[in-house]
Amino acid sequence: MHYIITAFDKPDSLDLRMSVRPDHLAYANEMGITVLGGPMLTEGDDPKPKGSMLIVEVDSREQAEEFAKNDPYNKAGLFEKVTIRRWMGAVGPWLPSGD
């Protein structure tokens, strides 16, 4: 099953995000369940990260929740809000061909 995890940063937390980023990236890679992920950005000519979006492939919602709970960003107190929604891919070059 796929889940989309969206996490919204607390205001004025860019420095915290950047200091924890290496640990967050290592965690997302080491867990082996991240299908796709990256920061959500502010608008304008000089966009800055303001949140995260990850698609994870797990066996249950509980596993997605556990992954989000243990993310170093979350443990550092970066997020104001986290949502987890079940998702099904329908289009895109990264999807399995089904052959």
Give a quick set of tags describing it.
3 helices; Alpha-Beta Plaits; 99 residues; alpha+beta; 4-stranded antiparallel β-sheet; 4 strands; 34% strand; single chain
Characterization of this structure:
- The protein has 99 residues and is of the alpha+beta class.
- It has a single domain, classed as Dimeric alpha+beta barrel (Alpha-Beta Plaits, 2-Layer Sandwich), CATH 3.30.70.
- 32% of the residues lie in helices and 34% in strands.
- Strands 2-3-1-4 form a four-stranded antiparallel beta sheet, with helices on one face.
- The two termini are 19 Å apart.
What class do helices, strands and sheet pairing give? alpha+beta
> Main sheet: which strands, in order across?
2-3-1-4
Distance between the termini: 19 Å
Number of domains: 1
Gyration radius, to the nearest Å? 14 Å
Q: Examine the coordinates and then state which fold CATH places here, giving the name of the CATH topology.
A: Alpha-Beta Plaits
Number of helices: 3
| Order of SSEs | EHEEHHE
Strand content: 25-35%
- CATH class categorisation: Alpha Beta
Low-confidence spans: none
CATH architecture descriptor? 2-Layer Sandwich
What general form does the structure show?
A: globular
Summarize model confidence as the mean pLDDT. Answer: 94
Largest sheet: 4 strands, antiparallel
In summary, what is this structure?
By secondary structure, the chain is an alpha+beta fold. It has three helices and four strands; from the N terminus they run βαββααβ. The longest helix is centred in the N-terminal third of the chain and has 18 residues, at 14-31.
